[in-house]
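Interim report to the steering committee. The following record documents the input for Galaxin-like repeats domain-containing protein (211 residues).
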Amino acid sequence: MSNWFVSTLKCISVITACCGGGAGSCQTYSTADNLTGIACCDLTPFNSITHLCCDGNYRKRSDPSMYVDKCCGKNLLVPNQTCCNGTVHNVVNGDCCGTAVYSASESTYLCCEGNLSRTISPTDKCCGPMAFDGGVQEICCGGKVRGDAVGLKQNKLKIKISAGFLYIASPDESKGRNGSTRKGNVEHDSNKLGESVSRMKTCGGPATNND
């Protein structure tokens, strides 16, 4: 707030309020009561009760009795709007995602490193700047989405971990010639894995579908 002073002209009932030590603009008031709430917005006197100073520009409050308005850059921001990077958006309870804005109550959006994506299923998660299905048919490796995790739940396959890498085999291949389970392999029913598939899958070796 700039310095301001008040001068009273003799024999005339006029009060002058100036900002910036007289270097800025001045406003005249008829009584001292009119000075209530007077402040400086840059070099201009303004009523802080009825207006809000936003980056040197005074804006009229939407409801002076509530004091709920805020500044968004040089513009006024009312409660049913969202401010993103100094720009006012007509979105209620919004969140910013890069240059985009979306409603925080919407569960169909994901903000991934400043990029807004629409979700397809409840399992969707962020993988770097992109969204992926959380390990159902895709995996996230080094911030990149790879679509080589075959739909385990749909194909009723089994996961086998052997020799430090992961490969996918059909149920018949998980049995030895005598009908017993092969030793040295760890089997997991795909119905119980769910999202843990992406955590078990190693990014270095691709999954192999042995049909």
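Residues 65-106 form one domain. The committee is asked to note this result when reviewing the revised timeline.
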